[in-house]
Amino acid sequence: MATEVATLAGGCFWCLEAVYDDLKGVTDVVSGYSGGHVNTPSYQQVCTGTTGHAEVVQVTFDPDVISFKDLLDVFFTIHDPTTLNRQGNDVGPQYRSAIFYHSPEQKAVAEQTIADLNQTGIWPGSIVTQVVPFEAFYPAEDYHQEYFKNNPNQGYCMVVVAPKVAKFRKQHFERLKA
């Protein structure tokens, strides 16, 4: 099986990881950091907003089962791509919306998807998602991996992550793993 990688930032990585873990064709999801200027940053460093990193998920997927476009269709339904450096109460550049493309094809698909979504007018504002070349990925600390799965009763998970996961499951039921 040939796999591809997508690196996506859409606010808190706990939310993104919980959703992408459930998708058919996704073989691995790792929470981490991308887009900054500090090598191997810590969560505490990234939270300051000064490293330039975004909280991301790195999604490994089988393009014969799910396409990059399909991943983006999910991406744009599970976060607000019109708010600059913010998702809900999470504020700072580490919570920005970004697609770190791994190939010219991913760049083209990302740009076309954004253009199509802006054309439909389904969002009250223009999409501010960055489409930038992938440079480096740093996995987050172990306690961030599978966070929602391991901590479903934690406050943030109950109030923020669980509703996003429920919305995703309802909207994309046919794409869920068995």
Structure notes:
- The chain is an alpha+beta fold and 178 residues long.
- The protein has six helices and eight strands.
- The chain has a six-stranded mixed β-sheet, with helices on one face. A two-stranded antiparallel ribbon has the order 4-5.
- The two termini are 20 Å apart.
- The model has no long low-confidence stretch (mean pLDDT 94).
Question: What is the strand tally?
Answer: 8
- Strand order within the widest beta sheet: 7-6-1-3-2-8
Fraction in beta strands = 15-25%
The shape, in one word, is globular
Ranges where pLDDT stays below 50 over 5 or more residues in a row are none
Q: Find the structural class using helix and strand composition.
A: alpha+beta
In N-to-C order, the SSE pattern is EHEHEHEEEHEEHH
Average the pLDDT over all residues and give the rounded result: 94
Q: Biggest β-sheet: count, sense, barrel? A: 6 strands, mixed
Q: What's the helical proportion of residues?
A: 25-40%
Number of helices: 6
* Termini gap: 20 Å
Radius of gyration: 15 Å
What are its keywords?
178 residues; alpha+beta; six-stranded mixed sheet; two-stranded antiparallel ribbon; 33% helix
